[in-house]
């Protein structure tokens, strides 16, 4: 029988005044609305010019959108069929551009904000329905929704905004399907998992999770088959929109870049533990997740009548953390090309699940388990919430950069357009060159005799302006403007 303390934690009282339970039921929606308001304000403070939303991947997605609009094919920035980036992002922007009459790069604000709100609502629903103590749910929601990495990522021309939105809703529906033992809800969850993969290749790591959810929700063969086939729409779309893209090079085994991976893990850990702790903070970050999740799962039992929504959420999100991490490491070790770089952006899909595991684990341990471990989980999420709120109150003006910006480099390339003749054009800044010229451009490493080279001097430009540090092998200079030099190889 549920005891009084547990009933109070759920907002239920045996008798008497109902104003207390009502206040508790309204508390979380009010806090969630406040978090949404703060998040939207912070989101709108981010730079919104089209070029600000583009990075290395963003230029490729934008080129894919324009190739779909102009030719009905998914073409890479160099003019070849695209086989590195999933087609969902470029296809979404192409469709919206066709419907609205706007350029794809002008739709980043709309797509990003809608994705951010979808993520926020999915997380709020997850917290509200799985965590019994609304203050825990509130700090967990704030830690994720106001995190600067999550907010800024949804303001970019990237696959992550839509992919994270679909993944968040897929996990929520999977929890609901298992809890209700509903095949229909599992079908919806499988559809959402499929959409997440359609936007981002790396989310194929969720297929085993979808299979597990289908097994516990229904166990029927047709549901398991549907979960197994979640990557199929992405594979079909890529084959249809980018003929030849499915032709893969042989797999190769490469040593894992532990130094780069450790740096990315340290950045992820710094979202929860103090940044000054260095490698000790990373170790504590991993141990914290393991002991809180492990103790909570052990206290609930692997099987039995105690498996409620909270315990299902704990298991599913713990499973996602393990599966995605293993997938990234295997993809680095045995991959075709290019091997994924495990940086903060690549690891951010783990962050919401890490916070959910910590708060659900702490909530479970407060009911039955070591209270000291529950306190560790609460402290960690509180630190993450405080860190997420800090940028909202810190808006010191940034000094003007003493370097040539990406805007200036694009203007220089546009002014030099008359000197850029011929089809064989290569550069060390593919994204900026394509953005200025709107034509396929190759890489300097692929230059041949007679190639026209657009060289952007990285020593004069701001960071992340050029994509490679390759320098052309000699050549005759044809024109120059700022940091941009046009030469014939």
Molecular structure report:
Helices cover 60% and strands 5% of the residues. The chain is built from 20 helices and seven strands. The strands form two sheets. A five-stranded mixed beta sheet has the order 4-3-5-7-6. A two-stranded antiparallel ribbon has the order 1-2. Helix 20 links the parallel strand 3 and strand 4. The N terminus is likely disordered.
Q: How many beta strands in the DSSP annotation?
A: 7
Helix/strand order: HHHHHHHHHHHHEHHHEHHHHEHEEEE
With strands numbered from the N-terminus, the spatial order across the biggest sheet is 4-3-5-7-6
Structural class, from helix and strand content?
mainly alpha
How much strand? 5-15%
What's the pLDDT, averaged over the residues? 84
Q: For the terminal residues, how far apart are their CA atoms?
A: 81 Å
Please describe the biggest sheet, giving its number of strands, its sense, and whether it closes into a barrel: 5 strands, mixed
Note the total helix count. Answer: 20
Overall radius of gyration: 25 Å
Shape: globular
The parts where pLDDT drops under 50 for at least 5 residues are 1-19, 302-306
Helix content: 55-70%
């Amino acid at each position: 029988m549920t005891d009084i303390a547990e009933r109070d934690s759920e907002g239920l009282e045996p008798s008497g005044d109902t104003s207390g339970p009502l206040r508790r039921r309204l508390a979380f929606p009010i806090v969630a609305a406040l978090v949404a308001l703060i998040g939207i304000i912070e989101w709108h403070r981010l730079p919104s010019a089209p070029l600000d939303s583009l990075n290395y991947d963003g230029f490729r997605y934008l080129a894919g959108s324009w190739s779909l609009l102009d030719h009905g094919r998914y073409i890479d920035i160099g003019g070849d069929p695209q086989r590195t980036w999933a087609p969902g992002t470029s296809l979404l922007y192409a469709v919206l551009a066709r419907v609205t009459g706007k350029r794809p790069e002008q739709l980043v604000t709309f797509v990003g904000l809608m994705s951010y709100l979808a993520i926020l609502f999915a997380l709020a629903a997850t917290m509200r329905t799985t965590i019994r103590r609304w203050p825990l749910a509130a700090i967990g929601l704030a830690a994720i929704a106001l995190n600067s990495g999550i907010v800024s990522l949804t303001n970019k021309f990237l696959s992550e905004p839509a992919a994270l939105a679909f993944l968040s809703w897929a996990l929520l529906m999977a929890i609901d399907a298992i809890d209700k033992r509903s095949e229909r809800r599992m079908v919806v969850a499988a559809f959402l998992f499929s959409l997440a993969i359609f936007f981002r290749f790396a989310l194929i790591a969720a297929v085993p999770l979808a299979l597990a959810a289908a097994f516990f929700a229904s166990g029927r063969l047709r549901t398991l088959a549907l979960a197994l086939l979640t990557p199929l729409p992405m594979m079909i779309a890529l084959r249809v929109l980018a003929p030849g893209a499915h032709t893969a090079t042989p797999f190769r085994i490469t040593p894992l870049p532990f130094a780069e991976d450790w740096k990315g893990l340290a950045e992820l850990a710094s979202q929860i533990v103090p940044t000054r702790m260095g490698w000790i903070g990373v170790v504590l970050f991993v141990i914290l997740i393991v002991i809180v999740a492990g103790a909570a799962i052990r206290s609930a039992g692997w099987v039995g009548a105690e498996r409620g929504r909270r315990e299902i959420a704990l298991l599913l999100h713990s499973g996602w953390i393990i599966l995605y991490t293993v997938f990234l490491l295997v993809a680095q070790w045995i991959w075709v090309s290019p091997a994924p770089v495990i940086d903060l952006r690549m690891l951010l899909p783990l962050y919401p699940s890490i916070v959910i595991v910590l708060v659900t684990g702490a909530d479970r341990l407060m009911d039955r388990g070591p209270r000291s471990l529950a306190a560790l989980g609460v402290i960690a999420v509180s630190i993450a919430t405080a860190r997420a709120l800090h940028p909202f109150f810190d808006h010191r003006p940034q000094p003007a950069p003493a370097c040539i910006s990406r805007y200036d480099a694009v203007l220089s390339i546009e002014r030099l357009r008359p000197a850029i003749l011929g089809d064989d054009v290569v550069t060390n800044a593919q994204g900026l060159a394509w953005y200025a010229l709107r034509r396929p451009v190759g890489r300097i490493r692929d230059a041949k005799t007679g190639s026209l080279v657009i060289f952007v001097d990285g020593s004069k430009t701001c960071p992340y302006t050029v994509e490679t540090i390759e320098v052309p092998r000699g050549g005759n200079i044809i024109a120059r403007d700022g940091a941009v030099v046009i030469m014939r190889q």
